[in-house]
Amino acid sequence: MTEHPRGTQLRAWLPLLVLINALSPWPAAAQVAARGLVGGGPPGGTVVAIAFDPKDVAIIYAATDWSGVFKSTDSGESWTAINTGLTNAAVRCLAIAPSDSATVYAGTGVGVFKSADGGRNWTKSSYGLPQEFPASMITMLVIDPASPRTLYAGTFERIFKTIDGAKTWIAIASHPRITQTSRFAALAIDPSHPATVYVAASDRGLFKSADGGKNWSVITTGADVETVVVDPRDSTAIYTSDHGGKILRSTDSGKSWIPTNSGLPATYSLTLAIDPKNDRTLYVANFEGRVFKSGNRGGMWTEVSDRMSNTEAKVLVADPLHPDTLYAGTGRGILKSVDGGASWRSSNSGITNSNICVIAIAPSQPATLYVGTCDGGIAKSSDGGKNWTPINEGLATDYVYALEVDRFDAAQVYAGTDKGVFRTVNGGAMWTEVNRGLPVAPICSLFIDRSNPAVLYATAMSGGRAFKRTDRGDTWAELHFGFSRLGGCGLAVNPADSSVLWATSTAGILKSSDGGKIWQKDTSGSRAFSKLWLDSTGSLYAGSAAGVFKSLDRGETWTTVSTTSPSEGLRNFLFDPVDSNIVYAQTELRGVFKSTNGGQSWKPINSGLPDLRVRGLVVDPIDSRTLYVGTFKRGVFKTTNGGESWKPTGSKSR
Fold first, then answer.
1. What phi and psi, each to the nearest 5 degrees, are found at residue 222?
2. Residue 275 in contact with residue 231, Cβ under 8 Å?
3. Mean pLDDT over the full length of the chain
4. Burial degree of 307 (CB within 10 A; 0-12, 13-18, 19+)
5. Is residue 37 within a helix (H) or strand (E), and if so which, with residue range?
6. What is the dihedral of CA 190, 195, 196, 198, to 10 degrees?
7. pLDDT at position 653, please?
8. Alpha carbons 314 and 430: distance in angstroms, whole number
9. Dist CA 205 CA 66 (whole Å)
10. Planar angle of CA 497, 498, 499, nearest 5 degrees
């Protein structure tokens, strides 16, 4: 199976999406998340490393990319955050001392942290390591099994070593080809001969040291090695995989190599695991979530699971005592298999690292919530956020930017993703693609016609384009704005008369009175409005860098409502369904604001929110004092008092 063309385009969008999601300096944002603040559901989010307690495999540690370290004592059935003292929550790797399993190390965005009590408390142990980001980001950690005070740490640029339990570090790896490299990608140690260390250096090949890092030799050249795995039972056997998914095997400690890809598709990126009790058995998982197994050391591969819930595996590990039990760290958290990879289930209860992009509340069943994430697909709650269920069957992506629930049927939902639009008619039990006529571009907004649910509008993130579907099918027609392009994702449909639409464009505000066939420019001039909103009375609001504007005559004339908060970074307006004078504003960096006089004055309402980068603000249509808001990597929060205080939703899975 080849990569979906929309997936190819996502690779090009990723730098922009990361920038949009972070919206602040990377290390500082991660430090905010590590202050012991509680996150909300849905459980999950990106897991980048998994480590077993060497003395009790029921104890597992999981590293998340923005919410620190979590620990399970029941084989992954439940998890608890263990971040006291961990002042940077962007964890990239873990290492546990085999002779003292209470000693745990974590590589973060600002160096190495150490715990001497099984993760309950952490101290920074980075003397000698780079102190400035991004050079400070530790992406690799390995520990000497014979000398647990000896560790190796890797950044993208250098390799370091400690012999005193991480009190002090020194730089190693001084081979001429290594010093010219642009990026280190993998680090491994020979468990039988711990002085032997392997390091993969970008496209310059794989290097080996037989004396603890003093001297290095090149054992492969030119390979873009991403993964290095040494067989724990026979350390002369080494496996590597490169950026394109090619696997090589050596049976003589790296002197010679043979390809071991028979049965594997040409694909992007692989993660590899060896059966700890039978080193002839190997597993690999790729970016599509496809899992393959070999029973002859990679001589031939067979697909055992065609989809690991359609999500990319960041890491794959086998239980040391129960080799049919596998754990995968993915954008959707931890997935677990107990049948050698044939089937997988979510194992995330308690992991709070979800990056919320959008929230939708079912108008006919307000306790039913759908949440789209920027890295973990879609989750659903049927009890107002107390419990959550991942609903990703058929959804071929982790990136969801828009959700729209049918006004009368809470089981019919549309999702705008980086791979177009998907639809479910059974509450998320199965999603199907409905993209005929849509461009190969992320979909950033969706609108269902309130008077005719068969009519659906979609806006694309790139190209300034909007589309309309009129028949509940999967065929879309483009809306044409003359010589203009859509500005941002700004499209609004009049709830009282769905033939009337407004759009933000490069020429200003455009208006259509015939369902989008013909557009005319209104009197807003050249104002660069980025988005439009309608309140329950038909008043039209628009946001720009210059402030908040309001029209009482369907866009014919505009008055300035506010030039101060929350115009800076304004992303969304939300109107109280009972009192149109109550308006909520969602901003990029400053959280949620509230106005009780139609937007003339505002106050921040962020008490209880752990992060002010918020998304997906929605209000309960029955109880207007109940609202939900999504946060960056801290899940969904809920207020029942109109925003006076916020509390995390439940972090348990069903």
1. 80, -15
2. no
3. 87
4. middle
5. none
6. 90
7. 72
8. 25
9. 30
10. 95
Contact residues for 167 (Cβ-Cβ < 8 A; gap 6+): 125, 127
Its pTM stands at: 0.90
What are the C-alpha distances in Å from 506 to residues 444, 464, 494, 527, 593?
Answer: 18, 9, 21, 9, 28
Q: Could you tell me the pLDDT band of residue 86, with boundaries at 50, 70 and 90?
A: very high
Query: Is 353 in contact with 331 (CB distance < 8 Å)?
Result: no
User: Over the stretch 96-143, which tens digit does the pLDDT of each residue have?
Assistant: 988 889 999 999 999 999 999 999 999 999 999 999 888 899 999 999
Identify the CA nearest to 512 among candidates 525, 528, 524, 498.
Answer: 498
H-helix or E-strand containing 33? helix 26-33
* Percent of the chain surpassing pLDDT 90: 60
Residue 483 CB: number of other CB atoms within 10 A?
A: 8
Our CA dihedral for 480, 484, 490, 496, rounded to 10 degrees, sits at: -50
Domains by residue range for the chain, with CATH: 5-268 (2.130.10.10), 356-653 (2.130.10.10)
pLDDT category of residue 641 using cuts at 50, 70 and 90:
very high
Amino acid at 565: S
Q: Calculate the CA 535 to chain-centre distance.
A: 32
What does the alpha-carbon distance between residue 86 and residue 106 come to, in Å, rounded to a whole number?
A: 9
Tokens 């069943």 found at? 365
Q: What amino acid occupies position 542? A: A
Report d(CA 111, CA 128) in Å as an integer. Answer: 10
Amino acid found at 373: T
Distance CA 95, CA 187 (A): 12
**CA atoms of 598 and 582, how far apart (whole Å):** 6
Which token pair is 240? 């590597």
Q: What is the pLDDT of residue 545?
A: 66
Task: Give the CA angle between residues 123, 125, 131 to the nearest 5°.
Answer: 115
Find the length of the chain. Answer: 654
Helices (H) and strands (E) in the chain, counts: 3, 57
Dist CA 272 CA 292 (whole Å)? 10
Instruction: Quote the DSSP letter at residue 262.
Output: T
Other CB atoms within a 10 A radius of the CB of residue 564 amount to: 10
Element (H, E) at 463: none
In angstroms, the CA 402 to CA 24 distance is: 23
Q: Tell me if 436 sits within 8 A of 414, measured CB to CB.
A: no
pLDDT one-digit tens code per residue, 605-614: 999 999 899 9
Number of other residues whose CB lies within 10 A of the CB of residue 636: 31
- 142 beta partners: 152
